[in-house]
Write a structure and sequence with these properties.
The chain contains 5 helices and 12 strands. By secondary structure, it is an alpha+beta fold. The strands form 3 sheets. Strands 2-1-5-8-9-4-3 form a 7-stranded antiparallel β-sheet. The protein is globular. The chain binds fe (iii) ion.
């Protein structure tokens, strides 16, 4: 059995939100899909350990805001690698409350689907929530982010990315000899050939030369939580 076959499945990337009383929370998921057209119904699989799972279980409502390819890594890091138990993910994020009271994320999203839970299935580590759509809409023009796009382009592993950000070949050659460093928290790879242009780090900057206050652009881990790649 070759489990890498599972990597060939296609997914989108969503911020899944819910509420509990007057509190709100959300997280990134890649597991939203439509299950029927009439009535329009979607399903989402959520890890039982997550705070959003607790909120959906209690309020029976959720909203999936569909991320755009323009979404910055910092947004994905905040919503995907941090817990609402430790940080207020909504601080600095533009959102509005939907019909059900579950938030709709307006930053870096192209559309939203708001649903009322009509059924749940226990699948061990996760629960599948099945929700009838009560409201949905398009927020702006743009390409929805796919999971593959997130891995290939947003993590800077494609040549296109390097071609965009590496200004000349001599920089590129030197940078190739510099070591890549991996974040132990989220798996982000700092590649000196790309630098971290979103945060003002030029291509060709060695990991050792990054300022002490530099943090992982995805999850916010500090430099000491990185280790060199072999
Ligand atoms: Fe990280």
């Amino acid at each position: 059995m070759d489990l890498t076959a599972l990597n060939m499945c296609s997914y989108g990337l969503y911020i899944l939100t819910s509420k509990k009383g007057d509190k709100v929370n959300g997280q990134i998921v890649n597991t939203v899909f439509q299950v029927t057209a009439e009535p329009p119904t979607i399903a989402v699989s959520v890890n039982k350990l997550n705070l959003t799972h607790e909120y959906i279980s209690e309020s029976k409502v959720f909203t999936a805001s569909i991320l755009s390819t323009e979404a910055p890594m910092t947004l994905i890091g905040k919503w995907g690698f941090k817990s609402g138990r430790d940080t207020d993910k909504f601080e600095g994020t533009d959102y509005k409350l939907g019909k059900t009271g579950a938030p709709i994320i307006l930053d870096s999203t192209v559309a939203y689907l708001e649903a009322q839970v009509v059924n749940t299935t226990d699948v061990g580590t996760h629960t599948i929530f099945i929700g009838k759509i009560v409201d949905c809409g398009v927020i702006r023009d743009g390409e929805p982010m796919t999971y593959a796009y997130y891995h290939k382009v947003k993590k800077g592993k494609t040549p296109e990315r390097a071609a965009t950000y590496v200004k000349d070949e001599s920089d590129k050659k030197e940078a190739k000899e510099l070591k890549k460093y991996t974040c132990s928290v989220c798996g982000y790879v700092y590649d000196p050939a790309n630098g971290d242009p979103d945060n003002g780090v030029k291509p060709g900057t060695a990991f050792e030369s990054l300022p002490d206050e530099w943090v992982c652009p995805v999850c916010g881990a500090t430099k000491d939580q990185f280790s060199p790649e072999d």
